[in-house]
Amino acid sequence: MHAEITSLLAILVFPGVIFLFVLAFFYEWVDRKFFAKLQNRYGPLHTGAHGILQPLADFLKLLSKEDITPFASDKLIFALAPIFYLALPLTTLFVVPILSQTSLITFEGDLIFVLFTFTLIIMTVFLAGWSSISRFSTIGSIRATLQMLGYEIPMGLVTIGPAIAAKSLSISKIVEWQSLHFWIVFLQPLGFAIFTICLLAELQFVPFDIPEAETEIVAGWRTEFSGRKLAVLRLGKDLELVLASALITSLYLGGPQQFWLIPPIITFLVKTTFAVMLLSLLRAVFARFRIDQMLTGTWKYLLPLATFQVILIQLGFGG
Amino acid sequence: MGLFKWAQTKSPWIIHFNTGGCNGCDIELVAALTPRFDLERFGILLEGSPRHADILVVTGPVTLQVKDRLVRVYEQMPEPKHVIAIGTCAISGAPFNECYNVHGGIDTVLPVDAYVPGCPPKPEAIIDGIVKLIQKTKESEGNGKGK
Description:
heterodimer, A: mainly alpha, B: alpha/beta, Rossmann fold, five-stranded parallel sheet, two-stranded antiparallel ribbon, 5 helices, 7 strands, 35% helix
């Protein structure tokens, strides 16, 4: 009975749902604040200490607003899409190690499960935009799907790298291997770069924010969502940011490791904050690509480079 | 002050709509969003879609052409929503008042919550207008949940 309560608490509170929500709000704040610093601004300042409560205030405000369902929309999918968009990254975060070197749920092949949910997230985006029956949402969702055709294959190829090095398809085993040998970022820097670029595209951050390009198609696939649904969508996006930074951390930066007296959770938080700052740095220094530039770029350069990385590992470099 | 009301005063998102002005006020509004004035300090973000926004920031006199579109954009915004009229044209129509193609100021079409006079008003004045609107929201009755 005691063990059951402990495992239930682990899933619901720490390091489960509530902890991940707090982390999602915290990383949105880190992202916005660092992004503002890079633009010589202050960013959120007056909501809590240094604006740390800003993401929470945005979330609560959106919860309290009117929830509009457009008359022409496909009502069932329109209501379900935000829930899936929140649930998918949340579920996937359970297979990524946070508290110690083994995650809450671990099985051989959870790396493939993570890649599969990344695809499902984009399918949810597509359904969300498609069910709105607004021309801006439709264009946005089609762009999101097109973009996925570009970055998904290079991302799948480079994640083979850590798996070959650790001789396992389980993220927990990859983390364990790194604590015994090197961080994989030192062995496969090319793979790390490609993986980061692909995650930028997955998160729809600036060089690849084509699906929600504000200056072209209003707010992209999210145009018609308001109130509660928008709040859930934004929280889902933040959780996706947590998932992306946690994946960078556990696949390339060694994951939660024990350094002398510092517990693994602290090293995990430091490394993921670094990953979030890396992503927002790239977001700040680049300008948006066109959809055709993005697709030709990924197929012409990213895919051959990803293949080259796998060949290098096969030849015995970085494996 | 309730939790939801606190959230509403801390995160007012604006959408910008030009009803036929000369672009002077628009440039000042955009200047208010630049790093020098940095409206994000107060949690203010410029949103692209009326469905995401709380405050409709209108510049320029309402022309007959744009009147229906302005009402449509306003109706697409979720409750609770506010309107700010920026510049003299938006307040009364100014030199264009009673022109053959001008309907008048914004308040002839929509309920306006705050006026910012000036031709064009400085970014500081626009920030002051938004702060006064937030004060008004704070002092108003109800829990701020809208309809």
